[in-house]
Amino acid sequence: MPTVTVDPDDARDRLREAGIEVLAGNTDHERWRAERGDAVAVAYDDKVVVQGSSPTDLTLLLRDGGGRAHVYFDGASRGNPGPAAVGWAIVSSDGVVAEGSERIGRRTNNQAEYEALLRALRAARDLGLDEIDVRGDSQLVVKQLHGEWNTNDPELQELRVTARELLRAFDRWDVEHVPREINERADDLANEALDDR
């Protein structure tokens, strides 16, 4: 069980700011409890103990500084436009701290790539991360975010603006194009979502 050395009052405030309900403790020794995903945080006088199968659901929010992680994203479309899905994974020094995938209806491949990025950025923000290294195998998305390539497609322009707004929530970020092999988990998640009918 991870123990986070943090002022329990500060930790409670961080959790509430993140929209997590904080409840009274179950015993006289517990100051409060909170749950998120597969993690439960229990506050004592001078520390917070996190239990559960996925403690990083809470530990990243509780630590000072929020932490740093790599954010991988991938979108897939069969037909371009056609049925589309997204996959993303967030990896910190603790391992995979969050991942997700879902079908997103009919989209082009580039729209699906941006949708995957947006979901990954929102998840990283919700985890309370301060620094992120974003990695994806879509050269178009990466070059557009860096301002190296323009887009005439109004929907892609809107998605790019939203991505840039989300990136501003982090103290430090960078976005880099990587080969598909390095982005394998996000790619697998997107394709698995497409295969689930």
From TrEMBL:
Its EC number is: 3.1.26.4
Q: Name one GO molecular function term.
A: RNA-DNA hybrid ribonuclease activity
State if Iron is listed as a keyword: no
- Tell me the Gene3D superfamilies matching this sequence: Ribonuclease H-like superfamily/Ribonuclease H
The record's section on Pfam families has: RVT_3
Where is each RNase H type-1 domain found?
A: 65-195
For this protein, the record's PANTHER family field holds: POLYNUCLEOTIDYL TRANSFERASE, RIBONUCLEASE H-LIKE SUPERFAMILY PROTEIN, RIBONUCLEASE HI
Which protein are we looking at?
Ribonuclease HI
Q: Which organism was this protein described from?
A: Halolamina pelagica
Taxonomy, top ranks, is:
Archaea, Methanobacteriati, Methanobacteriota, Stenosarchaea group, Halobacteria
Query: What gene makes this protein?
Result: rnhA
